[in-house]
Design goal:
Elements (H helix, E strand, L loop, with lengths): L3 H24 L6 H22 L1 H14 L3 H38 L4 H28 L1
C-alpha cells in the first residue's frame, strides 16, 4: 500500500523540476541569466534524483527479494534477455533503415510527386523490421 511519502515525493520532484522551467517561460531568457538558470535546473534535477534514490532504497530491496524469488531459474532470465535483444536489434535495424530510406524518399517525392507510392514502400519496409522483432519477443515471452 502506498504511504504518504510514496505519493508526495514524486509530486514534489515534478514540481521542483518543472518550476524553474515555468519561471523561465514566464520571465523570458536573456544572455545574463540563461547560464545561471540552466545550471540551476541541472542542479535541481540532480538533487531531486538523489533524494528520490536515497528515500526509495528500502523499496528497491523489497523488489529485489520478490524478483529473486520469481526468477529462480536462469532459463527464464535468459528468455527475458533474448526478448530484449530481439526488440533492441530489430529497433536499431529499423531506425537505420528508415534513416537511410526516408531522406531518399523525400527527395524523390520533391522531384516528382507521382513517386510517393513507390518511395513510401521503402520507409514502410524499414518499419516492418521493428514489428517483426516485437512479434518475436512476444512469442519468446509467451513461451516462458
Amino acid at each position: 500500500m502506498l504511504t504518504a511519502g510514496d505519493f508526495l515525493l514524486p509530486l514534489v520532484a515534478v514540481v521542483l523540476i518543472i518550476g524553474p522551467l515555468w519561471i523561465i517561460a514566464k520571465k523570458g531568457v536573456n544572455q545574463v541569466n540563461a547560464r545561471a538558470r540552466i545550471l540551476g535546473q541541472i542542479a535541481m534535477f540532480a538533487g531531486v534524483m538523489l533524494v528520490c534514490l536515497i528515500v526509495s532504497v528500502h523499496g528497491f530491496a523489497a523488489y529485489a527479494e520478490d524478483a529473486a524469488a520469481e526468477a529462480a531459474s536462469s532459463a527464464k532470465g535468459l528468455g527475458y534477455m533474448a526478448a530484449a535483444i530481439a526488440v533492441t536489434g530489430s529497433s536499431l535495424g529499423a531506425g537505420y533503415a528508415v534513416a537511410k530510406a526516408a531522406p531518399a524518399a523525400i527527395g524523390a517525392i520533391s522531384e516528382n510527386p507521382d513517386n510517393f507510392g513507390r518511395a513510401i514502400i521503402f520507409v514502410a519496409l524499414g518499419e516492418g523490421v521493428a514489428i517483426y522483432g516485437l512479434l518475436i519477443s512476444i512469442l519468446i515471452i509467451n513461451a516462458l
